[in-house]
Specification:
The protein has 173 residues and is of the alpha+beta class. Helix content is 45%, strand content 23%. It has a 7-stranded antiparallel beta sheet. The longest helix is centred in the last third of the chain and has 17 residues, at 133-149. The termini are far apart.
Amino acid sequence: MRFESKLDKANSDIYHWYFSVPNDIAESLIEGIDRRVITKVNGEVKYHCAIHADGEDGYRIMLNRERCKKLGLVRGETIQVELEKDRSEYGVVMSEELREVLDQNPDADKIFHSLTKGRQRTLIYWSDNVKSSDIKIRRALVMSQHIINQKGQPDFKLLNIEMKSANQAAKQG
């Protein structure tokens, strides 16, 4: 589905850049509680995200600062938007590195798949949000052991500490 919208910025500490989605389009893509879509902006940047209620009987999609910068967008600018229903397993793409680590560790895989879809996406993003394959593997290994140790209750502050420790060990080794 294609439409035009204007980039705006919310007065919020949580959400910043967003664009409105016409109600008829949003409602045709929302299935029960599943609001996941794949968004393409100006024919260039494609990403997985969710349609959010805007609190005023409408809908919006967030656009992070990095994507705005990559596209050279400014507040009030008209953008071209393409949306399609996200039918992926997790609502984001999982790297081959993370998939392989989970395949090699059945306990971590079982715990990972017992988590909510939102927690799964957060852990995928945490693990995969780097370019280096070696670092993705290291993050996936640390994360998989972390969710086992935490019995499926990830503590992201502790996870970051554990990752720093793993990075230090990799530098020394």
